[in-house]
Write a structure and sequence with these properties.
CATH architecture of the domain at 8-87 in chain B: Orthogonal Bundle
Strand order of the largest sheet of chain A: 4-3-2-1-11-8-7-6-5
Structural class of chain A: alpha+beta
CATH topology of the domain at 8-87 in chain B: Rna Polymerase Sigma Factor, Chain: A
Helix content of chain B: 55-70%
Number of helices of chain B: 9
Number of strands of chain A: 11
Order of helices and strands of chain A: HHHHHHEEEEHHHHEEEEEEE
Distance between the termini of chain A: 40 Å
Order of helices and strands of chain B: HHHHHEHHHH
Mean pLDDT of chain A: 78
Number of strands of chain B: 1
CATH class of the domain at 8-87 in chain B: Mainly Alpha
Radius of gyration of chain A: 21 Å
Strand content of chain A: 25-35%
Low-confidence stretches of chain A: 35-74
Largest sheet of chain B: none
Shape of chain B: globular
Strand content of chain B: under 5%
Largest interface: A-B, 53 and 61 residues
Oligomer: heterodimer
Structural class of chain B: mainly alpha
Number of domains of chain A: 2
Number of helices of chain A: 10
Largest sheet of chain A: 9 strands, antiparallel
Mean pLDDT of chain B: 85
Low-confidence stretches of chain B: 112-120
Shape of chain A: globular
C-alpha cells in the first residue's frame, strides 16, 4: 500500500452541520452579497468556542481533576507558598487508587464568558472531555460522534520518573516547551515566560490525570514561578469561590482556583486587561475587548474505562 | 441517453451564475465534501469547516474571472482552498512534527466502535509526517494534490497558477525527499 495515499485516510468526512452552515453562508452571499462581506467574521466564530475563549483570555482552560480529601477547619492560607504546600499535601493524601494504563479521565466543565459587570452578555457552555491516563489521546463528542485527538506535549510517565521534585518537573516542562519552540515558531529564544509556564501547569492540573507525587510537585512549584501570588475569594463559573494562584501579565490576569477548605480544584478565572485583535482564516478580524472575563468550573472528574463513558 | 439527463458542466454553471447567481450553489454540492476532506487531512476538521466555507465565498465573489471554457472548476476551487490552507502553514507543520515525534496524530479522527484497535502510527507513517513537515509549502501542495486528489500535472498547474514544468520539478523534488525516508516506496 502506498503510505502517502493512505496517510490520514480515515479523517472524518464533513459533518452535515458543517456542510449546512457553510452552504448557508454561500447562499447568504448569493442573495445578499453586501451582508456577507460585513458579517464575514461572525461565521468564523463557529471555528471553536474554546479557541475564542482561549484567544480572549490568553489562558488555555479545561476540565480538571484534583481529588482531595476534606480537611475542614483549616485557617485561610496566608501566602502563595502555603497554598502550594497545602495543595501538594492534599494531592499526596489523595485516597483514590491509581487508574490502570488503559483508563481515561472524564471531565465535565462549565464555561462562561462575558463582560465584567454585564451578566446579561454571558455565554455559557458545558464541555465534556476524555483524556487517556497515559496522556497520549483525548476525545470528545462532536455531532454525535466520538472524536479523538493525540499530541500532549508532556508525557505524564516522563514527569513521574524519580526523583520527582518541584524544580525537576519545572525543568522538564520548560525543556518540552523549548523543544517544541525550536522545531516550530522559534519565538522564545530559550526563555519560557512565566505566564506560559503557568498556563501549561494549569492545563496539566485541569485536564490530565497525574501521579499524586507529580501533582504535588506542580503545586509546590507554582509559588516558585516569578509573578505568581495568592488571591482570596475568587469566583468560578458555577458561583463557587476559592483561593487562587494568580498571575498578571500585560494582557490578562489569570487565576487557578482551589477550594479553600479541601484544596480541590474548582476552576479558572481570567480577565482580559487589554484589547487584542485576532485575524481569522478568512482574513477577517475580531477584537476581544479589555474587560472580557472567562470563568470555568469543574463539574465532574472521574476515571472511566472507555472514552465516551461517564461512569 | 436523452439530452435532458446531461449534467451542465462547471464552466457553464459559472457562466450562467453571472446572471442567475443561485446556479453557483450547485458547485458547492459537487465539491464541498471532497475539498473538506482534503483540508481536514492537512489541518483537521475544524479548520476545514472554515476553509470550505471561505473557499466557496471567495470563489463566488471571483466567479467573474473564471475562464468558463474550462469545464471542470475543481482545480480552481482547490487552488483557492490551498491559498487558505497556506495561512495555516506553521500549524500544519507543527501537527506533522508532533505526529512524527510521538506517533500519535494530533488531528482528530473518527473511529469505529473499537478504540483499542487503534495503535500508534507505524514507523513509516511517522517518517512520512516528518518528511512532509520539512518540505517547502509549494512542494507539499503539489505532492498532496497529486497523491490524494489524483490531479493531473495540468490540473495542479491550473490550481496553483504555476507552469506544468514547475509542477514537474516540485513533484520530483518532493518525491525524492519522501523516498529518502521511505525507501523505494512508490509515491
Amino acid at each position: 500500500m502506498n503510505v502517502l495515499k493512505e496517510f490520514r485516510r480515515n479523517t472524518p468526512a464533513m459533518t452535515d452541520n458543517a456542510a449546512t452552515a457553510a452552504k448557508a453562508r454561500l447562499m447568504t452571499a448569493i442573495h445578499e452579497p453586501e451582508a456577507t462581506r460585513r458579517s464575514a467574521s461572525s461565521g468564523t466564530r463557529r471555528f471553536g468556542w474554546r479557541i475564542a475563549v482561549a484567544a480572549a483570555l490568553a489562558l488555555v482552560v479545561g476540565g480538571t481533576v484534583v481529588t482531595l480529601r476534606d480537611e475542614p477547619g483549616m485557617a485561610p492560607v496566608a501566602s502563595v507558598t502555603e497554598l502550594g504546600e497545602r495543595a501538594a499535601r492534599a494531592a499526596e493524601d489523595d485516597p483514590m487508587p491509581a487508574p490502570g494504563p488503559g483508563q481515561w479521565l472524564y471531565t465535565k466543565e462549565l464555561q462562561l464568558t462575558g463582560v465584567e459587570g454585564d451578566v446579561d452578555r454571558d455565554q455559557r457552555d458545558t464541555w465534556e472531555r476524555w483524556t487517556s491516563v497515559d496522556g497520549k489521546r483525548s476525545a470528545w463528542y462532536q455531532g454525535g460522534k466520538l472524536m479523538f485527538q493525540g499530541g500532549a506535549i508532556f508525557n505524564p510517565a516522563e514527569l513521574a520518573k524519580p526523583p520527582v521534585t518541584p524544580p525537576g518537573v519545572i525543568a522538564k516542562i520548560k525543556a518540552a516547551i523549548l523543544d517544541e519552540d525550536r522545531r516550530g515558531p522559534q519565538e522564545l529564544n530559550g526563555h519560557v515566560p512565566p505566564v506560559m509556564l503557568f498556563m501549561e501547569i494549569n492545563q496539566l492540573i485541569s485536564e490530565q490525570w497525574l501521579a499524586p507525587e507529580v501533582r504535588a510537585a506542580l503545586f509546590r512549584a507554582l509559588p516558585t514561578i516569578k509573578g505568581i501570588t495568592v488571591t482570596q475569594d475568587v469566583p468560578v463559573a458555577d458561583g463557587r469561590r476559592g483561593v487562587a494562584f494568580s498571575i498578571t501579565e500585560a494582557e490578562a490576569r489569570s487565576y487557578l482556583v482551589l477550594d479553600p477548605q479541601t484544596f480541590r480544584y474548582l476552576g479558572t478565572n481570567s480577565t482580559r486587561l487589554q484589547d487584542r485583535t485576532y485575524e481569522w482564516a478568512d482574513g477577517s478580524k475580531e477584537t476581544f475587548k479589555a474587560g472580557t472575563v472567562g470563568l470555568t468550573a469543574q463539574l465532574e472528574a472521574t476515571i472511566v474505562d472507555q472514552p465516551g463513558r461517564r461512569s | 441517453m436523452s439530452a435532458e439527463t446531461v449534467e451542465i458542466d462547471d464552466g457553464e454553471l459559472i457562466r450562467r451564475s453571472a446572471h442567475d447567481p443561485e446556479q453557483f450553489a450547485a458547485l458547492f454540492d459537487r465539491y464541498a465534501k471532497q475539498i473538506h476532506l482534503y483540508a481536514a487531512r492537512r489541518l483537521g476538521t475544524q479548520a476545514a469547516d472554515d476553509i470550505v466555507a471561505e473557499t466557496f465565498l471567495a470563489a463566488f465573489r471571483r466567479r467573474g474571472t473564471y475562464d468558463t471554457s474550462c469545464a471542470l472548476a475543481r482545480p480552481w476551487l482547490y487552488g483557492i482552498a490551498t491559498t487558505l490552507i497556506a495561512r495555516h502553514r506553521r500549524q500544519e507543520e507543527r501537527l506533522l512534527r508532533a505526529l512524527s515525534r510521538t506517533g500519535v496524530d494530533p488531528l482528530p479522527e473518527a473511529l469505529a466502535d473499537t478504540v483499542s484497535r487503534r495503535v500508534t502510527a507505524q514507523g513509516r507513517e511517522r517518517e512520512l509526517a516528518g518528511a512532509l513537515a520539512s518540505l517547502p509549502r509549494g512542494h507539499r501542495d503539489v505532492l498532496l494534490l497529486v497523491a490524494w486528489e489524483d490531479m493531473s500535472y495540468e490540473e495542479v498547474a491550473r490550481a496553483l497558477d504555476i507552469s506544468v514544468g514547475t509542477v514537474r520539478s516540485r513533484l520530483h523534488r518532493a518525491r525524492k525527499k519522501a523516498r529518502k525516508v521511505l525507501g523505494d516506496e512508490e509515491l
